[in-house]
Each structure stands twice: as C-alpha cells, then as structure tokens.
Write a structure and sequence with these properties.
single chain, five-stranded antiparallel β-sheet, alpha+beta, FAD/NAD(P)-binding domain, D-Amino Acid Oxidase, Chain A, domain 2, three-stranded antiparallel β-sheet, 13 strands
C-alpha cells in the first residue's frame, strides 16, 4: 500500500498510534491481502461501530429517557412568524416548538426552501456491497486507492464505495456491483468464492467545501441546522451535536464553531 502524508498528519494531530509496515509485515498481519500492494500504514487505535446497531441503541436510549419519536413522518415545511420559528409541518399535521433543528442529511436543503437560506447541501449516492465470508478471513479495516473493505466479527465484509452525483436516486446498479466486486477481489483475493449477499445505496449530504454546516439560521431565530457531514456522519455526530447544543444554550463550547457556521 502507498503511504499517505495526510494520514500521518492526522495521526499526529489526534495523538493516534501509527506504525509503518513494509510489504512483508503487512502480508504477515493480513495474509488475505493481495501480495503486491506494497508498504502499509497501521493505525491500531482506529475502531468501528455497526451503525444499524448504534441506531437501534440510540432509539432505545431516547425512549427510556422519555423522548417522543414520530417515525415515518415526513417533514414538509417550517412554520415561522416575525423572524422566529414556530414549528414544522408534517404529513400528519403541525408540530409547534420554539426551537427546531434541521438535521435531515441530504434532504436538509429541501426542508429549508422558502426560508431565505440556500443551504449548499446536495445528495451524493454511495453504493456498497457485503460479502458473507468466514470469521477471521480479514481482521483490519483496509483502505487502498479510494476503496475500502471492513470486516465484521461474524464474517461479514463490507466493501465500498461509489461516489455518484445522481440526485435523489437511491437505486443500485449492476455496473457498481461489478466494479465493487472486482476491486474487492483485487484487494483481497481470498474473497473469491464467497457470495455477495447484499448490495445497497445511500445518499450522503455533500457540501462544496466538504465542511458541515452547523448553527442558527441567519434570518429566523430558533431555527438551527446541523447537516452536510458527507461520508463522516456517524464519526462526527457526537462532536457536531455537542457543538450545536452548546450554541443553542449559549455556553462555552468544546471548539470554535465559526468554521461551520452558515
């Protein structure tokens, strides 16, 4: 694998361990990888979560805390009066509230239509596939030239992903499945013979500069936005939520919010 000065700088900034491996060491660590990938960088502190399970855990935690959830309820617009938010419109009626947070991912700009703010968040489709392999075939997350494979303890291996500007189309394509399969087998030849059991697509909320937009609407009091996290939503969620809550409560925050303001 090729070394990457950006990864080295990131590890130094965040005080993460970084080990440089030659090709032989990389092959010893992950025998399933292709033999001609070259040297590698190992970040032993980097971990992963299974986001569907995280979502279910967060939902259970909210319900235990008495938070009301309205699932499968489309937000169709915002209510405002005299420059202040009043609530939202939904497919099942109005919900009145003195503060509203728009955190609708790729759909955030649509919800904000008519508020005087053209939020520069657009959908970017990403397709992924999932192999059913044997547990232990691969033990580390591997990233190589824009492609990555993520092993799970139960033998599932995720492979991704595409970057497609196709609007709000979440359909999967045969071309993407073939490309992802081919690149996965080139990276991990040991995957040959294991089935692809799932193929799906999602819409990432992309911004022009790659920076999320967090803060209060410039013209409507009480209306807040937290969107545009692109490919890093799960990773950045705790910090961006804390940053926005600190702003809403007027308290000193963990970091400067100005790079993310609207």
């Amino acid at each position: 694998m090729e070394t990457n000065p950006l990864i080295e700088a990131w590890a130094q900034t965040h005080k993460c361990q970084l080990q440089c491996l030659d090709a032989e060491q990389a092959g010893t660590l992950e025998p399933a990888l292709a033999a001609d990938l070259g040297p590698a960088l190992l970040l032993p502190d980097v971990a992963q979560v299974r986001n569907p399970r995280l979502g279910r855990a967060l939902r259970a935690s909210l319900l235990q805390r008495g938070v009301g959830l309205r699932e499968h309820t489309e937000a169709t617009g915002l209510l405002s009066r005299h420059g202040a938010v009043q609530g939202i419109r939904t497919g099942t009626g109005e919900i009145h509230a003195p503060r509203v947070v728009v955190a609708a991912g790729a759909w955030s700009a649509q919800i904000l239509q008519g508020t005087g703010l053209e939020l520069a968040v657009t959908p970017v489709r990403g397709q992924m596939i999932q192999f059913q392999a044997r547990p232990g075939l691969l033990r580390h997350i591997v990233q190589y030239r824009g492609h990555y494979v993520i092993p799970r303890n139960d033998g599932l291996i995720l492979a991704g992903s595409t970057l497609e500007h196709s609007g709000f189309d979440k359909a999967v394509t045969a071309e993407a499945r073939e490309e992802l399969t081919r690149r996965s087998l080139e990276l991990v030849p040991a995957l040959f013979g294991f089935r692809v059991i799932r193929h799906w697509a999602g819409l990432r909320p992309g911004t022009r500069d790659g920076v999320p937009k967090i803060g209060e609407h410039p013209a409507i009091r009480g209306l807040y936005i937290n969107s545009g996290h692109y490919r890093n939503g799960v990773v950045m969620a705790p910090a961006s939520a804390r940053l926005l809550v600190d702003r809403m409560l007027g308290r000193e925050s963990i970091t400067d919010i100005s790079p993310y303001t609207l």
